[in-house]
Amino acid sequence: MPDNFKAIYVSKTDAGQAVEIKQLTDADFPASADDNVTVAVEYSTVNYKDGLALTGKSPIIRSYPMAPGIDLAGTVTASADPKFKPGDKVLVNGYGLGENHWGGYAQRARLPGKFLVPLPKAFSAAQAMAIGTGGYTAMLCVLALEKQGVRPDQGEILVTGAAGGVGSVAIALLAKLGFRIVASTGRLDEAGYLKDLGATEVMDRAGLSGPAKALGKERWAGVVDAVGSTTLANAIAQTKYEGAVAACGLAQGADLPVSVMPFILRGVKLIGVDSVMAPMAARLEAWTRLARDLDPAKLALIGGRTIPLAAVPRAAQDILDGKIRGRVVVDVNA
Which domains does the chain carry? Predict the structure, then answer.
């Protein structure tokens, strides 16, 4: 392995953050006794959280300097963890990567072995990053609905933020499982894409983004929400008796102006879905199910764009501006 490696390097300045592509060496890694595995990173991806981190629009980065990127996939080159050996293909999602631990926007990573998930044989490293945290979170949401007993014969499933990474993968998964899906989006020009993924109907997000009633007309058997705020409040108010809502994002806002009525009169379940610190058992279950239930042809639609490391800062702004459809894969060696 060459001594130098390329990374996006974010440092703190008096004016805020400085972002640059920099050549680093192993001596630049923060010292940590827990980092017992070295990975040659092949691919990463661009998530909404990465957009916030690189633009500095939210205090995602907790420690400077930082190599951001909350996802990575690659090959183990050295390991003091008995569970992994050189040559193993692995991936990592979350666990504070890009926040308080150097992440995937680099050609090399040093990580605790407890962070690593063996790469499913069904996926290449690039495909795993076409799924990334967004797709893995979508699978956690689908599993949450299943565990609450939500079935295809109970009615429609609402997916909000449908053209984003979570929404796109959620639609593909739910369609494979036989659900009827209503996709909510602010980009109605993406209706064809969403229907190709499996959405039955596409609706304008404006229908959910206004103030919520305490109770709305019952419509949804289940909901996958990556938006939060009044969109989530409206979705809850319209969920059917004993339906379930899986909430995993806050693209519209972190507030939740909702009434208690859906919970006490309809028995609606609101399930928070955390992908960052999810236990390893949940991660392994999610990736096993992704390998089984995610149609490769639909994954190609979702993650059909690959960019080099130098293009990541621009993509970070684009994802915050709602200009990115599905997933963007980052080839860190390009």
Answer: 5-119+304-331 (3.90.180.10), 133-272 (3.40.50.720)
Phi, psi of 115 (to 5 degrees): -80, -20
Q: What's the sign of the alpha-carbon dihedral 168, 166, 72, 57? A: positive
Would you give per-residue pLDDT tens digits along the chain (334 residues)? 668 999 999 999 888 899 999 999 999 999 898 999 999 999 999 999 999 999 999 889 999 999 999 999 999 999 999 999 999 999 999 999 999 999 999 999 999 999 999 999 999 999 999 999 999 999 999 999 999 999 999 999 999 999 999 999 999 999 999 999 999 999 999 999 999 999 999 999 999 999 999 999 999 999 999 999 999 999 999 999 999 999 999 989 999 999 999 999 999 999 999 999 999 999 999 999 999 999 999 999 998 799 999 999 999 999 999 899 889 999 999 9
Q: How far apart are CA 293 and CA 288, in angstroms?
A: 9
CB 301 within 8 A of CB 196: yes
Residue among 208, 145, 203, 202 nearest 173 (CA): 145
CB atoms within 10 A of CB 42: 22
Task: Give the amino acid at 239.
Answer: T
CA distances from 246 to 141, 219, 243, 257, 281 (A): 6, 16, 10, 16, 19
Alpha carbon distance 250, 255 (integer Å): 8
Cβ neighbors of 318 (< 8 A, separation 6 or more) are 51, 324
3-state SS, residue 68: coil
- H-run or E-run covering 123: none
pTM here is 0.94
How far apart are alpha carbons 313 and 8 in whole angstroms?
9
Q: Cα(135)–Cα(153) distance, rounded to whole angstroms?
A: 24
